[in-house]
Structure formats: C-alpha cells, structure tokens
Amino acid sequence: MAGLQLAKEDKIIFGVCKGLENSRRGSAFLWRIIFIVSTCTLGFPFLIYIGLALFLPKSK
Asked: What does pTM read for this prediction?
C-alpha cells in the first residue's frame, strides 16, 4: 500500500481526495461528498482539507 500523497492526475482542486483513493482508502467521489457535506454542516473540515493539501507530499 502506497503512502498518502497528493494526486498529480485526475484531481479537482489540490488532489487530496484522489490521493486518498490512490492509497486505497475509499473512492475519491465518496471523499469529496464527505468533505462537502461535513464542511457545510460543521465548517472545520475545510481547514483539515487545506492542511492536507499543504503538508502532504506530491506524487511522482
């Protein structure tokens, strides 16, 4: 299993959700829905997403 990395291809914004899919942690579509719904209801998951985008390494 590959480590968690930002996706280089098939990304929409930063590649966090596609990176989660590539590391075998669910589908990118499901992660996108989770981030959107939880951000609309709670607000702070957006900060988690931005943090992952800033600190995860980019795939090669």
From this structure: 0.78
